[in-house]
Amino acid sequence: MTVNINLLQKQKPLVNPTFIVILLVILLLLLASIFVGAYKIKRSIQSSEEELAYIQVEIIEQTEMSNEREQSQSLEELMNATTWLEQERVNITGFLSELTALLPTRGYILSLQLSNKNEVEMLVQFDTQREAAYLLHSIKQADWSIDASLATINEQQAAEMERSRFEASYSFTFDPSYFSIVEEEKR
């Protein structure tokens, strides 16, 4: 008879099978939560991109509407100006020739702005302050002048010039009927 004597102890498995099952369940739950989180983040990114696209479309639409409003306003201003010009029909060349006739020999118009209410803003350059005062007096005495005032007068020094020059700013209102094209045709 053979006797089987085993002096070595029976080895226990290094890893308990229940431990492996629990570890697998935890791992599956962890992977599932990662997939769910990634899906939610992906949906959030997609909804943000959709919202961004919607906002960009809204911005484009608002810009187009604003441009259309600005164009309609500028068109309306242009129509008002043409209507005014058709109603008033002022002979600008006649006005300018009358105005320049009042200037002294070395008086120069630097800028001239004419509004639709027959108001004129003008900047003129002179040699002396006396010439600036004389032009104001001449404008006030003109038949076509309603109201005139000297807004400012400034002395201008230039390096190439030995004498200083003066810039005077005037504002005045004129009678449009004096320069009316219809009235000139009747004369």
From TrEMBL:
<protein>
    <recommendedName>
        <fullName>Fimbrial assembly protein</fullName>
    </recommendedName>
</protein>
<keyword id="KW-1133">Transmembrane helix</keyword>
<feature type="transmembrane region" description="Helical">
    <location>
        <begin position="20"/>
        <end position="39"/>
    </location>
</feature>
<keyword id="KW-0812">Transmembrane</keyword>
<keyword id="KW-0472">Membrane</keyword>
